[in-house]
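Field: COMPLEX_INPUT
Field: COMPONENT_COUNT = two
Field: RESIDUE_TOTAL = 806
Field: MODE = joint
Values follow.
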Amino acid sequence: MSSSVPLLTSATRRRAGSTTLRARLERVANAAVTPLVPADYLDLFNPLRAGAELRGKVVAVTPETADAATIVIRPGRDWAGHVPGQYVRVGIDVDGVRQWRAYSLTHGPRPDGNISITVKAVPEGVVSHHLVHRVRVGTLVHLEQATGEFVLAPEVTDGPATAKLLFVTAGSGVTPVVGMLRNLFPVTDTGVVRPARSAHLDITVVHVAPSRPDSIFIRDLEALDAAGAIHLVARYDDVHGLLDVDTLGDLVPDLDERATYACGPGGLLDALEAHHAARDLVLYTEQFRPATLVVGEGGAVTFAGGASVETDGSTTLLDAGESAGVLMPSGCRMGVCFGCVVPLKEGSVRDLRNGELTTAVPGETGPGGIRIQTCITAAAGPCHLDV
Amino acid sequence: MTVVTKKDQNPVAHLTPEDIEQLGIELDAIRQEVLDTRGERDAAYIRKVIDAQRKLELGSRAVLLASAFPPAFVVGTIGLSIAKIVENMEIGHNVMHGQWDWMRDPKIHSTTWEWDNASTAEGWKHSHNEVHHTYTNIVGKDNDLGYGIMRVDEDQRWVPMYLAQPIWNFINACFFEYGIAAYDLELGKNLKTPKDRRPESFKKAARATLGKIRKQMTKDYVVHPLLSLPTGSFLPTLAANFTANLVRNVWSHSVIMCGHFPEGVETYEKAAIPERETRGEWYLRQMLGSANISGSKAMHFMTGNLSHQIEHHLFPDLPSNRYAEVAPKVQALFEKYDLNYHSASLPAQVYSAWHKVVRLSLPNGWLETTTKENLPSQLKMLWAMTTGDRKVRRVAQLRLEQQARRLRAQKKADVERVA
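Field: COMPLEX_OUTPUT
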């Protein structure tokens, strides 16, 4: 005991010493590269290293359907992992412009440490088209840590002898569910594996899609069904007509015994919520696509401090802010000096010189919003400025 | 040069207000063409430049760790000089102009960029992007006309201190980054203000600039020399860093002088600028107030494409790599509207700018009226103007101008007689 005390102390001292040495080295490194930081140089050689801003490298792009593909990404060293069902925000440069989107992770944690997202190219979808059709292996993308509440409850995964679940998926809403199912029932060369940890699960999947060929992951779902891992109820609009939620009980006779996890467009989720609330059933939902933004002429502009002002389509945001008493940064007032640039967190604005629209969607655009020049832009619908 | 409105022949007199607006529309169309095709290729360009610049700087500094070895000293100094020039000109200047903001990359953005220079990004963006680019060449509003320490226009009143401006200009060239920092702070004006009356904004900016200078100096003159100590290269590295800064300063000063100082570039009178200048009028002022440098691709790159100063002043926020392709279209517009597209080689423009600095260091008309014969009396008058009070100067100045006018009239008559 008595001998361990000085040992501890010296160990502590050594640790303290190494931290100050480390801190000193960092100070020297910072001083040597000012006004940049050492990371700016390290990024040139190893952007995926520990301590770097989180990024990932595309290692494979596999087509799923004609307009959907799975992108496998090797995340940087600081990737903290995820739980099946969670999503990740990905920042990718399309035509030179950094765009951010959220995508479900379509695999459980994989042994190779990679993550995968499955993207369906949606009409007018700048990013989804790029990811499905143009992105190349080796591309560097920006990542945020996985997040999302749409995960299986712990009592389901580690819990009772049986757990009865219902997944309702529509369109690309299948992606987080596939992430969960792949984790529960891994697919190997010999087929679907039913590991012991998933043996107690009784899963029904109601999958809704416009048609079978349009359905991402339908082969995976069918394989799981064939292996007896899940019971699949596929509903195609072109065969069965549009799904009426009130008939869900007919498709799933033991509906009342199941906890429902639903992912899809807003309309379906709203209908399910009403349906389940009326029957007092458990429902977890996930929706990615936010409500469509209103684009028009002028609109209500709100500011970080809470001030708000109604503007027309020709009043610059700078003038609008100043009239609302907000301390706006300003400069040349003619689009030349970039002294008035502030983040647009939400909404659409129009460049008064050429009519070009810029739209910020929370959760879709970069974490800091899109920086815009307020002296030459006007509101094109309600918008929120972070100033 | 003289402000446009006081010239015998106004270079824009032949343009109607409608012409000027039409010119604005045509320039907007050129701008839009670039915006419509701006994309991946451009983003890849700036990323490549930044990547190469950082590797060159890193490599050069690594080589300089052994700068006691003469070839390492030479290679490292050349590399570091080039790296510093590219960092300031093609990257820093252009990023801080917002030319790459459209990429939405927070790392390559006008609001976050800080450059390897004594002046802070914040201060520079105000004095350069805002004041200089908005009020280009308006005497009394655009301090870039002589940086507040030189007389570069006939319409600036001559005072004796201007006699020394060729020397100042040389010193300014050598320590240009500090000159710019002082200029951004409006140091002269603020130092003249009593300490307790100096605005808070100045004190804040001065603190930031001093902090920046301290860091910059520590990097180049303490940290890197110390890192070179193990190879006995402390002093050579210090010398190499000093040289690289000197080279970068002289180079950027030369390039920047060529942008607005050469003979033939127009300046404007504050009173003659309308309260609300139209887009066309603003464009026209930028067109005539700037001058280009002709040369090779490498030269354009090393000037940060400020060799396309005219195009840069028309479209300060378009990516610099596009100025070269826009230039022929802009030049065609100059021809269409019968305006002077001012372009010449680097040596010619540098000479022209220096010539003007020397010429305007003397009172208006002095050089014109001086011959070998009257030199002693002219010098005597200059001495009187230098030592005398304002009244003496005014009287002498009037006499000089009268003489110069008479000489010009005589010359004109001679020419007519011969014709």
